[in-house]
Amino acid sequence: MQAFPRQNAVARALQEYGRLVKTLFILRYLQQPELRKRVGRQLNKGESLHALREKVHFAHHGNVRHRQLADQAAQALCLTLVVNCVAAFNAGLLTQAVDQLRTAGFEIDDDDVSHLGPTMTEHINVHGRYHFNLDQVPKGLRPLRQASPAIDRHERPPCTPNRPPRATP
């Protein structure tokens, strides 16, 4: 309807309705701090996923170099598959880490766990060679590092020269 040269009454009405919905959302957004927090969390999730895609798709500076649409689609689908595999792997690691910390006696709130996302990239090395022997059953993952009492959320690690110690009440 937008591309049609002569705008009819229905197209104009839909445009005005869209503006009205957008205005109502903006007003709710400005009035409700909880809505702003929720929108911010969703934006952060999207940015985190984008950072993971960028980390995985590092070759050719992230550009798609294929000329044919089918090849471009295949490359995009492969990227999506790899990102989904990394996210699933990370979700498994997060579950193991939380279980290990709880077993070690650390208090971890379920609310805190609900804010964790499987898109972290610090442990991913994309600049290496990986060999997969598909004829053998995988041996499993390496064990997680042991929890240190200094990472308890009620204790702080020793202060560094750049950070003054926290005053205790």
Secondary-structure-based class equals mainly alpha
Largest sheet: number of strands, sense, barrel closure: none
Shape: flat
How many strands? 0
Written as H for each helix and E for each strand, in order along the chain, the element string is HHHH
Mean pLDDT: 82
Task: Classify the helix fraction into a percent range.
Answer: 40-55%
Task: Draw up the topology in text.
Elements: H1 9-31, H2 33-56, H3 69-103, H4 110-114
Spell out the key features of this protein.
mainly alpha; 4 helices; flat; 169 residues
Protein architecture, described:
Helix 2 (33-56) crosses helix 3. The relative contact order is 0.07. The protein contains 4 helices and no strands. Helices cover 51% and strands 0% of the residues. Residues 156-166 have low confidence and may be disordered. The protein has a domain at 32-126. The protein is mainly α and 169 residues long.
Outline:
The protein is an all-alpha fold.
